[in-house]
Amino acid sequence: MSNELHHNIVTLPNxxxxxxxxxxxxxxVLLFDAKKANPNGDPDAENMPRIQPNTLKGMVTDVxxxxxxxxxxxxxxxxxxxxxxxxxxxxxxxxxxxxxxxLMEAAPINASAKRIFIDIYKQNETAFKKGNEFWDxxxxxxxxxxxxxxxxxxGVISTEGPLKGSFYGQxxxxxxxxxxxxxxxxxxxxxxxTRCCSxxxxxxxxxxxxxxxxxxxxxxxxxxxxxILTMDSIERISIFLLPSLQKPxxxxxxxIIFFLQ
Length: 261
Description:
- It is a single chain.
- Helices cover 31% and strands 22% of the residues.
- A hairpin with a 5-residue loop joins strand 2 (41-42) and strand 3 (48-49).
- Among the domains are: 62-178 and 243-260, no CATH class; 188-228, no CATH class.
- By secondary structure, the chain is of the alpha+beta class.
- It has helices at residues 62-75, 100-104, 107-123, 131-146, 148-153, 201-211, 250-260, and strands at 26-34, 41-42, 48-49, 57-60, 154-156, 170-172, 175-177, 180-185, 188-195, 222-229, 233-241.
- Strands 1, 4, 7, 8 and 11 form a five-stranded antiparallel β-sheet that branches.
- The chain is built from seven helices and eleven strands.
- The chain crosses the membrane at residues 237-260.
């Protein structure tokens, strides 16, 4: 890991390097705007923007922000360049179409866990006497070393796989987000949109029957909806870095700040 930053957005404090360990707690506030957009649709409400019913303020979940950061690290290296090949230690655990049990039982993870277990044994010869406990620790550490989002945000990896039912399958990440809330009330617009084609021959016949030969409403035209926030929304989200849970590298904190800008 490089000790130098490739950008000038963040200045390292005196005596700090990018590969150093964060030892101080950091509390941050991020403000971002949503202009004529749907910042975080609600699947339980036909993907409408999330609005708190009692305050009418917009809301964005912490999961939504973490997803954006995961996607960023899946595309870019820590030096800011696009990835040609996977970067060691920065793979993504929670990704589209993934089967988590297969990821946890993958051969590279098992091999890494064995190396970590041997290192533990060299420092503590009682490791073999407490084999199951130290093996769980080794497997957890191997997963955290491989997957950036698991060691940054944490996760539950004790439901299936080699850590099923294990205490060490509860990974607490040092970087946590609150739900974002807009500073002011928001108003959503349900905009009807049209499409100049049909999905199937059956839909085309139904459209022709409904239009009754009207050229303006006939053809293969179909209708849809696009729901957005009509008012410019400033969203506020709190971010906490708690090094007491793990010891993240300073570079991770720098990249989170860089991404959010």
